[in-house]
## 1
Amino acid sequence: MKDMLVLTNSEDEYRLISNTLSDAGSIRRAFDLNTALTLHTQSPFDLIMADIELLAAHPGMQAFSSVNPFVQFIVLCIRSNTRKALEAVKAGAVGYLLSPFCERDIHLLIPSLNRTRSKDFELEYLRDRFWKIEWMDIIRSKNTSMKKIFENVRSVAPTIATVLLLGETGTGKGTLARLIHWHSQRSEKPFISIHCGAIPDTLIESELFGHEKGAFTGAERKRPGRFEMADGGTIFLDEVGTISPSAQIKLLQVLQDGTFSRIGGDSLLKANVRIIAATNLDLEDAVRKGTYRKDLFYRLNVFPIEIPPLKERLEDMEYLVDIFLKKLNVKYGKNIQTVHPSVIEGFGHYEWPGNIRELENILERAYILETSPVIASGNLPIETQMAVAQGIPAPGTDLTLAQARQHAVNACEFSYLTCLLAQTHGRINDTAQKAGITARQLNRLLTRHGLDKKQFKPKKDA
């Protein structure tokens, strides 16, 4: 150990830990979570020994780990709270001490902590030898399919093989294409992206391959295409399934012999590029229907990677939310570190038709509207709010009966009101009448639960 923090209000516990570990490194103390986070941000700790009641306050261990991913936690709790200690270990803590503990209990934990830390560093080192540091957040995943995809990326990135990325719109095909490029031998050369579906058929060939002066009406000067711009690097052809038949022929020529010519030109130009293509269409079905060239499909399909939709990788939701919040903090200058746990839980009940792109857009909107340090459900779109309402967890047995009863009432009210407001399109009087209460009572409930009637109005009336 080197730098340690003890988060506790107990003078006896702090004194015992401090005396026992005085030779292991420097030890500091914090009385509350905010102070602990401030100290950790200023100078990250290697080990944090924290009272479970203080650490359980939002945002808990996650905020410390975002500053130093190698930080280790030991939770301190009374024996009647052993269940909480075990839950903390399940969430990432490396051990726990049950009060009252003694010097021997602390000494028994330290050797295992050092072994765990050494193993973590070894695994991270082996991983980092390939992945560049700035991409480490992107490749974090608990999902089996995504782990396999990243292993495939690791295998194919250093080669010059053509890669075909498959998956629904919004699953992150563009990000994966950049990941491949930045871990290839061409990473110092250009990465040129072109959205084929956004360019009219009459212009796609000019965009890809360029044109000579006078090649067509409006071609007043020679213009290089994207393949020339990407010389020595990578070209990413997004929505490659939408290109016209004539463009398919020219793209096939590039894939077959590495040459192309500008529109209106006779000379052959060398295409020194690595091609990564992406599509949300079923190209095999398009080949069967005769709308896509079979030989082009086979040339593109050298190394296919199929990306699962977000609803099939919900275990990565917290990682993704964390990544987007970091980007939003940089973009807008706020300091929102996380979302409310009920929101994360509710996200698991939503279908995510727009996949990761929809998640990013929803979070950005909520981020802009949020005035507290935590994104709550009230600033989410109504469809997502209803999913959050479905996902509100049952109260734990650590609550008193009165607290558990209030928890159930709050969950019921939130779910009931969101459904009712959706039916009435946010009309207060109609909602109050259906609920059998006054408009004044309804407004008080909406304020309590962070609901805004405007979110339930049809778009044309908003």
## 2
Amino acid sequence: MTERQPLFVGGSWVEPDGGHYEVIDPASEETVGWAPEASRDQVLAACAAAREASGPWSRTAPEERAAVLGRAAGIIAARLKEYASLAQAETGATLGTARAMQVGVAAARFRRYARVEPAEWAITPQINEAGPMGKAGVMGALAVRQPVGVVTCVTSYNNPWANPAGKVAPALAMGNTVVVKPAPQDPLSVYRMAQALEEAGAPPGVVNVVSGRSTGVGEAAVASPDVDMVSFTGSTAVGRRIAEVCGRDMKRQLMELGGKGAAVVFDDADLRSAVAGIGTTFSFYSGQICTAPTRVLAQRGIHDRLVEQLAAYADRLKVGDPREPDTVVGPVISAAHRDRVESYVELGRKEGAVVVAGGERPDLPRGFYVAPTLLADCTHAMRVVREEIFGPVVAVVPFDDEEEGIALADDTDYGLIDYVWSGDVARAFRVARRLRAGGVGVNTVGRNMEAPFGGFKKSGVGRDVGSYALHAYSEVQAIVWPG
């Protein structure tokens, strides 16, 4: 609790110009540690250090870069309990989530990108007729993935391990250098990741971490002339501002933004499976996840039963101290965010929704808790149905037939991940292909970690995960020669 974390700039641990601020445990409201507040000059120095390291790192053999990532994966895995304990304290995640989905996934992502993949591929030769460009001939071509350069990684608070690892590991594998700007609520875990990379042999300047509560920290990390690309996970509103800055200098972008995932549940669905999947909104990160199925579209034949079973499911979940082994729902990240989520529940009441589960603050002595809440009798015009709440709140809207279900699902500004539950697999896939979302889960909320991830519409720009991340953090160069 007394530790004062330094910044990590150019391979050195540096005292912050802006002093330190408290990182608060959302479950106990106690101090976890003290995070550094970088100045604008320190952020620009981090970007300059990344630029200086960019050339040598990009020319390092892919096998050597992969070896660094592999060693980092081993260090993270070896310190799983220590790192998970910190992540749990910073985020309020349950123990299982902190170990498996935060630190465990981070180690897996570094291990994944320690696997060298071909960065070039042949293009079909082209036969050219004689003409103004020269004699007739056969033209060969090669497409080569080249690193973008310096990447600013702005990461989310809901997972301070898996989210930055999903950016940093593929970016480094492709030969880029990075400046990581973690979320102000839980930056300490990201510094542990930087420490693991330093111990694994990442050269000075290849990885830099700068944090702060001031918006100026992130703005400087995005606007720096040394930065070639910005990878951002967060709200659509902030993503729009970042895109405007990037647009002025034509910086590359990878944006994973908001979501309001629709779960389309047909009359012939396995309700037990649907309830368990939708119920992850109540429990997984306490609903603080953009992929959550928060907008349930229930066909009328099963609507009442689905509402009844979802309400019973929510009521059974234990809300409380995430360090207790039987706790399912921990706190949200801050008092301010708890107030925001609660204000949406009250808004839902005013709009005419019926609160059939939750809706009241849990009776706990401390911590930023929100009860799993189910809103029924909703219409698609309600703000609680249309806007991202980012908490353990689910809204249910009825529909009549397949066409109406698809129309309602697509009637949104977002398009990250939707879900379809139906016993008719042919219909489920037919509906999935028509939904305007970057991903669709058919009878599952599970993920394939090699499948492309990203959103349509205001849910983002670009795709990452698996080999798609290597494409995201690279430029494609064409080399052409006469055969």
## 3
Amino acid sequence: MKAASMLRLFSLRGLPWGLGNGGQEKVELTAAEVESLRSELADMEEREAQLKAQLENIDEILRSSRLSGYLYIRSRWAALPGEPPPIDDTDIDDWLPRFIVLHDLSPLDSTLLSDIVEVGRSPSFKSEDDEMRYAFFILTRHGLRYECSSSSKIKVDAWLSALQADCKLDCGTTAPNGSI
């Protein structure tokens, strides 16, 4: 493959490539195209600065966290008084992998540790790919129930211990489907 065709393959969209003296390739740009590229470059540099700031914020959150890692999670709402009990949805595989961080800050999409009223072990189960999953739940005072699982029993035990300690929950609290 010739150099000219290689350059066209990796060229920026809309930039004309032409042959110069001595067989060397050159780009011919108008003043408007140069200004457009400068504007795009400035926008990319600004976006890079924003992403670096977000990354530094995430790094600080992770450094201050007591526990973090990927868990499979799903959430359910508890039945309100007078409502029928929720349907049995144990056959529905709606577990989503999420990166969870246990810390004192309260960013968006978070649950305050002070809102947690119960933490407990849930029955283990096999996922669709026949992998054994160990599970636990978190119940908030607002009736939201988070069900979490992992293929690592050690990881689940670590999360349960940390949540019980940080939420100051009694280790003898019994759950509807298990006890801790």
## 4
Amino acid sequence: MRRAESPTGAESLTRAIEAISLVDHHVHGAWADDVSRRQFEELITESDRPVPGWMTQFDSQVGFAVLRHCAPVLGLDPGPDPETYLARRAELGAEEVNRRLLTASGIGHFLVETGHRGDEILGPAQMAAVAGRPADEIVRLEPIAERVVAAGTDAAGFAGRFEEALWERSRTARGLKTVVAYRHGLDFDPRPPTPAEVTEAAGRWLRASDRSGTIRLDDPVLLRHLIWTGLERGLPLQFHIGLGDPDIDLRRSDPLLLRGLIELAEPREVPLLLLHCYPFHRHAGYLAHVYPNVYFDVGLGVNYTGARSVAVVAESLETAPFAKVLFSSDAWGPAELHHLGALLWRRAMIRVLSEFVAEGEWSENQAVRVATMIGAQNARRVYGLGEKV
């Protein structure tokens, strides 16, 4: 693993943080095939619009980070032009690129969410084979419900069929995830719907699906039902928060909107994981501060803020107890994003914690312990992974 930059005099702290075998508690698979320049640029942005011909996605924080930090892993000097970088990538081929970048990341365990275009990316077993590290699955709720409807059910039978399917699909999963922020927004009624409400809503969904020929779950009653069924399942439950593609209404993805659900779910003691959270990461930190069932990360925001990611990571350490903060990359597609998620997080932790130590606010032992908690131990506890052997 290439060493991250660190302030003078922080060598031992740098070595300790670089040695952490990270647990990426929310990640997707790496892209399995070779890509063109156009495809690569579309894969390093959250926009779903074509890249205009007068610009390039390489002229962005994440684009500069790829050229600066991923190029050496592929055998190039730091900061090549995009054409040179992509030519080297094509020369090596997707399999070798994935192997180099995933192994160089220092991620020791992947928790892979498979609900988004899973047939285009590596699954958990493939990620484990390429990286040489364990990988477990996080199961998304909404596709399970959509498959139940696609397989055939009536409104009255939907709730039972979904519960059966969820338990079967999650037999070996480490956690669940909901994208209610995309499908409706976080400003939903937090109470569990009644059986009659679920049946009525399922009927509406089935009729609408018959008319449109598409099966996409966006009914707020049924989304609530999925969440509460997931809570009954008892596995850690992840929520997409904040930054995402244009399918999300960012105004309605502030985690403060989840307060009612958090309080109603608190007696169940199921961990609620708030993912990404940028630009609402301070709100997420507050919720993790006041509610024992809430945890959060700043995963996606780290890659897309690049050289400014130190500030984002620093802000994630402000109010939340350190046992409530986790590491994730939320990488999907190019293995560059998996590698950068880890490298930029380590670099940020080294810089921020070195300052705390240099200023006499923290001891070095405290800094190493907190970095290890956030980088690995918290996720191992929350998801029942056990201690690394």
